Amino acid sequence: MWNRAADKIVIFSAGFFLDLIFGDPYWMPHPVRLMGRVINGTERVLRGGGEGKGRGDGGQIRLGAALVVIVLGTVAATAWVVLRAAYSIHRFAGMGVEILLTYQIFAAKCLRVESMKVYDCLKAGDLAGAKAAVSMIVGRDTDSLDEEGVAKAAIETVAENTSDGVIAPMVYTALGGPVLGLLYKAVNTMDSMVGYKNERYLYFGRAAAKLDDLVNYIPARFSAWLMIGGAFLLGGEYSGRGALRIYRRDRRKHASPNSAHTESVCAGALGVRLAGDGRYFGKLVKKPFIGDALREVECEDIRRANRLMAAAGWICWGICMGVILVRGGGILCC
Predict the structure, then answer these.
(1) Is residue 210 pLDDT above 60, yes or no?
(2) In sequence order, which ranges of the chain are alpha helices (DSSP H)?
(3) Are 257 and 206 in contact (CB under 8 A)?
(4) Does 148 score more than 60 pLDDT?
(5) How far apart are CA 102 and CA 55, in angstroms?
(6) Residue 285: helix, strand or coil by DSSP?
């Protein structure tokens, strides 16, 4: 008998496959871009159009906390109203809107496409183009990077975003439908916009950064184990044993409580050394290395990192199907 769980499996799977096929076309309006506008607008209002100087550190922290509450409340209310309105028209209208939102929550193809632009430039010997391409997906300064540094930056981004951009959105959407999935994306977007440890955002962005650490705590570790499983399944160019060994040894070698989990798996699976010192906003930031340099990093490792990300995503999709079946398709919004 066709039931609610079956609807949710169709919705989740349709969103998953639409993302794999189409990614995020530039012409299509996207919730994350709308979130970015809400975040920018709310920040301007809260800080009086400037940086809010003169309020003190505590005042900046409270303003940042207000930003988090306002943005999350706006996202949750908007998603809930849109879905309720669609389902009030017809079941299929509601499912259609839910599929569209689910599709836009996932970002596997976008991550692959943007990182492979770096790969294509490196393969063509276009270091300047590779630097420009990688600067679009990393937060570090890229001007002084050589070919290996550019490749490493792209690999690390794929590894870290296997959790942030692929696995975590899938998990939250499977657990709570598009409303929870969009709330996760809002937290992630706020962290990427205001979660910097610079003069402007050190205190104002603290609430967003801490919340991002919290909501990614379990997904980062879950993603690491999915990637380890993916390394064993892929075999050949990938070492499952190496992924497990480096994960156990290096998973805490990062200022973030979450980032090194997936980076260490990727480094171990590929047999390369990642991370190390980097420049951010013109300042040198000292960071430990992750992994062992069993060989030199090469541009082909960008492609390999994407295959590992895809393997973890497929495993996660299967697990999410089971979660939806067990939960009977219940979601937060409808």
Answers:
(1) yes
(2) 4-22, 31-46, 56-89, 91-105, 108-123, 127-135, 147-161, 168-194, 206-215, 217-234, 240-250, 259-270, 300-327
(3) no
(4) yes
(5) 40
(6) strand
